[in-house]
Amino acid sequence: MTRPALQLRRALESGPVLLDGGLSNQLEAQGCDLTGDLWSARLLADAPERLEAAHRAYVRAGARVVITSSYQASFEGFGQRGVTRREAAALLGRSVRLARAAAEDTRAWVAASVGPYGAVLADGSEYRGRYGLSEWDLTRFHRERVSALVAAEPDVLALETVPDVVEAAALLRATEDCGVPVWLSYTVRGTRTRAGQPLDEAFDMVRGHPHVLAAGVNCCTAQDADRAVETAATWAGKPVVVYPNSGERWDADGRRWHGPADFPARRVRDWVRRGARLVGGCCRVGPDEITELARELASMP
C-alpha cells in the first residue's frame, strides 16, 4: 500500500474526510455537453481541461478526496467510438492524472472511479442490477479497467453505485490483489440494494476483505442514506462511506432530473455519529453544497 493510501486510512481512524460532489452537474454548469453513451468520460478525449477545471472547483470547495471521471469509461464503450484498447487504457490513466493535477498543492487524495457494468450500457441498468451475467463475467469485465486505473497510481479505488451483491462480489474479486485499497458503495432504495437484496447481507459480504477501507452507499436519497449508514457500520465492520444525491429524481426514460432538491448539510452530523468517515455528495450536489458540508464538519467537536 502506498504512503498516501496509508495516510488516508489513518485519517479515517481520526475523523471524517470530505469527498467531492457530482462531476456531471459541475461539467454542465461549465457549459459541457454530456449527451451520448460515454457521458462525462467522452471529455477525457475531447476536453480534458474541462474535467480538470471541474475537479478544481471541488478542491476549492474543501473536498479532500477527488473522484475521477472514469465512472462510465470502459474499453467496450471507447471501442464503439473507434478508440483502440491501448488508447482506451491511456484515457483511463488520464482520468487519474487530471484529478491529481487538480489536487496539486493540497492534501486531497485521488479516488479512481470504477462504475458498475450497467453504467456502460447507458440505459439506467445501474439502478436495477441483475444484468444476466455471471460473477465470473463481471469480474473479467472489471479487472481490465481496474488494471488500467491502478497503473496510473490512484490512492484508492471507488467501487461505486453498485446495484447488487453479484456485482459487488465480482468487484471485490477483481480488486483483491491490485495493491490499491478500495471502498465499496451500493446504490440503494429503502433498506435494500437496487436489485432487491437486504442491505445487511450486502454489507456483511465485505467482512474478511482487508483491502476494503470503507463500505456504504451513494447515488441514493439522503433519507435512504440515513438508514443505510448504521446498517453499514454494523454489518461491514468498516468505516462508512456515504454520498447521496441532491434529492432530485432521475428519469431514465426521459433522461432528465425532476423534483425538489433536499440535501441539508446538517445531516452529516448524524452520519458521522453513526460511523460515517467518508462523506460527500453524488448527482446534482455541487461545490456550494460541498462547501456547506465542509463548514458542518469543521464545526463538529
Structural overview:
One of its GO terms (molecular function) is S-adenosylmethionine-homocysteine S-methyltransferase activity. It comes from Streptomyces oceani. Its cofactor is Zn(2+). Pfam families: S-methyl_trans. Keywords: Metal-binding, Methyltransferase, Transferase, Zinc. The chain has about 300 residues and is an alpha/beta fold. It has one domain: TIM Barrel, CATH 3.20.20.330. It is built from 13 helices and twelve strands. The strands form three sheets. The protein has an eight-stranded parallel beta sheet, with helices on both faces. A two-stranded antiparallel ribbon has the order 6-7. The chain has a two-stranded antiparallel ribbon with strand order 10-11. Strand 6 and strand 7 form a beta hairpin. Helix 8 packs across helix 9. The longest helix is centred in the first third of the chain and has 18 residues. The relative contact order is 0.14.
Annotation keywords:
301 residues, alpha/beta, globular, two-stranded antiparallel ribbon, eight-stranded parallel β-sheet, TIM Barrel
Map the helices and strands:
Layout (H helix, E strand, L loop, with lengths): L2 H12 L2 E2 L4 H7 L13 H4 L1 H14 L3 E3 L7 H5 L5 H18 L6 E6 L2 H5 L13 H17 L4 E7 L2 H11 L6 E5 L1 E2 L2 E2 L5 H6 L7 E7 L3 H14 L4 E4 L5 E3 L4 E3 L8 H7 L2 E4 L7 H13 L2
Parallel strand pairs: 1-12, 2-3, 3-4, 4-5, 5-8, 8-9, 9-12
Antiparallel strand pairs: 6-7, 10-11
Helix pairs in contact: 4-6, 4-13, 6-8, 8-9
